[in-house]
Prior knowledge:
By secondary structure, the protein is of the alpha+beta class. It has seven helices and nine strands; from the N terminus they run H-E-H-E-H-H-E-E-E-E-E-E-E-H-H-H.
Amino acid sequence: MVDRKHLLNSGQMARFVADGFLRFDDLVPGELNRAACAEMEQGIERRPGGVRLSELWPPPSAVGEIFRLPQVQGIIHSLVGSEPLYDHHAVHTVNAGNLAGQIWHADAIIDTRMHFDIQFFYFAHDTPREMGGTLILPGSHFRRISESDIARYQNFVGQLPVVCGAGTLMVVHHGIWHCAQPNRTDRKRYMFKLRLNPTVRQLGLWNTDDIDDPAIPGILSTNHRWYGNEGRIEIVNRIKFWRFLTGDERFDVSYWLSRIENQPETHAA
Ligand SMILES: O=C(O)CCC(=O)C(=O)O
Ligand SMILES: [Fe+2]
């Protein structure tokens, strides 16, 4: 059972809805990071998808221990429930001196559900800018694209290179646009990715004590700038998603969704 104090709060959930990711700097302690680096160098065997995460990587396993950390369990529980399924993992590497960047893409081009998977990006060693750091585009998760559709783009206003210290975890919505970056150092870069599927309705799984936090509408209205005037559709997407997560079908920010719900025939009835 996850201790309530490790669950996400509503402000963090609203950030996930608006940005499509949450970032936890230096969450994993040093010793575990070093053990995870050693495991990644050895290679971490892939498993068939669809098994419970809780059944994977029993001790001794650094990766298992990381995803059993109480804080990480709190993140998992808040987003996909306490018994998610393992979808797949990958040890993503960028070789020393590899100057080619990966194309912009999203990983889950077949998945257009409102229910969402999460992907952890775990950076087990320091990742300075010259080593790349996965580049992500905040707020891109509602633009469900076919993988290479966006490959022609090079840079976006507001793109975020994950430059971070060892032990940093990102958790992203499966729709987020991202790509690996060149590695100008003489060391190989590792990043461990883990995708999880929910097994429960994703309704109020976090600590909702602050559900009426007045900051939430502002967070949901975040302007990431790269979409220009089309930011309005993103706010509507986020309101719909917030309603899905909270079960509050009347939730609105300003008058965005209500104005198109004003059906004259309803009034006549
Ligand atoms: O290595 C990275 O930083 C990202 C890799 C990735 O997104 C992928 O291969 O799907
Ligand atoms: Fe990817």
